[in-house]
Amino acid sequence: MEERSLRVYDTNKKFFSKIGNTLNKLLIPTKVGINGMLISIKRNNVLKCYEAFNKDDEKSKKNKDELLQKYEDTYALYLEALDKYIMDSVYKKVKAKAATTVEEEALSKYYTVIHLKDTQYLEYKYRKQKFLLELDYQTITANEKLLTRYKKFYVSKMDTLYKGILKNYSIQIADTIKISVNDKDEIYNKIFEVLEEYITQILPLKIDIDKENTNKDVLEEYDKFNAYLVGKLDKKDQIEKKKILLSISRNLFTHSLPLVVAEQCYIKLLKDTRKLIVSSPNEKKRALAYKTLIDLIEDYNVKLLSTKIYWDKPSQRDEYKKFWEEYKNITQIKGEEGNRKKEILFLQYEIKALNTKQDKYKDIIKIYKDKLVEYGVMRKIENKCKTLTGKYIKKKGKINAK
Q1: 10-residue block means of pLDDT along the chain (402 residues)?
Q2: 87 and 180 share a domain?
Q3: Measured between alpha carbons, how far is 53 from 69 in angstroms, rounded to an integer?
Q4: How far is C-alpha 313 from the chain's CA centre?
Q5: Are 99 and 222 in the same domain?
């Protein structure tokens, strides 16, 4: 009878319901305060252990294993305290409709991460830690003294977590039996999202901590990347931004995003750029997309293929060596002549690579050949018979392709 009465009052927002809601709102801040105090203690403990583990003295070196174990134990307790804060405080505040917009968004994100547990356990493990650390980092940004101390630990842990997430995606892409083309495209997008997130949120902190020891190439690429954070980006800009992300990844995530996976990401960008050139609505946009393709081909060769050790076939490796030697010789030529020769080399290499699937790539191959005709490397002989389309031949007279 009592339960039935309470349910009626609760549904109609009567006196007892209002008292219950008021008490909840009064008790929640107390719970938040207790959790906040516990988090502060656990955070302080993990920072002490992190600093002790990273000390560069003889005593620390001798006790490295013991210090590492202590650091890992305090880190686990710290995460537990943060997790308890979500369930005991944020959840109850949202349920009692006393939460802020930030807290509501945090709880929503928390459940999105939890949802991964049954299907992608590794990703869930990394993303949950990442979420909890991000949550606590936001709460201490106003405390400059604590922030300075916390930042090194935060960046160190985030480095490990982002590498774990990328490595997990790399393993999924390598599983060619289970993964479909659509799933593969989705993972490519996730890789680029994770790289962008790292470069916008973690890399600036890393540079701030130790700019002098940050790779110069990374700093240059990071400056280029910042230019793509302003304004609305079209498809060409999106491809260029992803190219920079891949370029930075070759320095920061060499092992967690292996060369074979990075190569597939470059190939995906090349396919997207070729499609963009063919589908461009006017000559101006096509020219801009074409320039993006040339830059991407150079990036792909300089930052990836030139460092590739293992090839599927020895003949491919020998063929690429010849291409690379020619490229290095051309780079010695300065000015417009050097750029033109380099572009011709890239186009010839592209045509050769795509020629095995000529029907699929016939539109882009035609654009490449027209460009080579423009540069005087090929000639286009028009047939008088209207049923034929003509053929492209090299200047020497040898037929290159129909």
Answers
A1: 38 44 41 72 95 84 88 95 85 83 87 91 95 92 89 96 95 77 89 96 92 86 91 92 94 90 94 95 94 96 91 89 94 92 94 83 92 89 59 53 40
A2: no
A3: 9
A4: 30
A5: no
